Amino acid sequence: MHRIKVPNELLDAHECEALVLTCMDFRFREATQQFVKEGLGINQFDGPISIPGVCKGIAEENGTVTDFAKFAIETALKVHHIKKVLIIHHEECGAYGISDRDVEFQKETEDEKKGDAILGDLYSDSDLSFQLFFAKKGDGEITYVSV
For 35, which DSSP code? Predict the structure, then answer.
């Protein structure tokens, strides 16, 4: 058995501010966590929950994807009393497979807004807010923009 002890002062905490829904692409994972913490000032958040293409399946009315996103949101609401859902898409997403960056950005942000509308309607009777972002690659860095 391999055992590693890692200190964690949050083990007794039961609330956090947000849930992060993002793509499964490993290239963006650490930067996305850094963006949420440093760029948005949210230190405690659930996730990131990885969904290939994030809102692609929701926009395409794929019930499995929508149900998974709903399950994640409802669990985070119930267990950790989140106030926000952050939806973060990214450039060069394999789930989309679009080589033209402008066309990809347009399609992904369109799906992101559609996913936001669908999920937002499901939680319209709550205080839950949704924020949309898109991660763009640069020379060794990633820029996150609001959608």
Answer: I
N-terminal to C-terminal alpha carbon distance within the chain: 46
pTM of the full structure:
0.89
For the ranges 11-15, 78-82, 104-108, the lowest mean pLDDT is seen at 11-15
Look at the alpha carbons of 137, 87, 130, 44 in this order and tell me if their dihedral is positive or negative.
negative
Lowest-confidence pick of 1-5, 61-65, 109-113, 141-145: 1-5
Whether 55 contacts 89, CB under 8 Å: yes
Domain ranges of the chain: 18-146
Architecture (CATH level 2) of domain 18-146: 3-Layer(aba) Sandwich (3.40)
Closest CA to 62 of 52, 72, 48, 49: 52
**Beta strand ranges found along 6-141 (DSSP E):** 18-22, 45-50, 84-90, 129-137
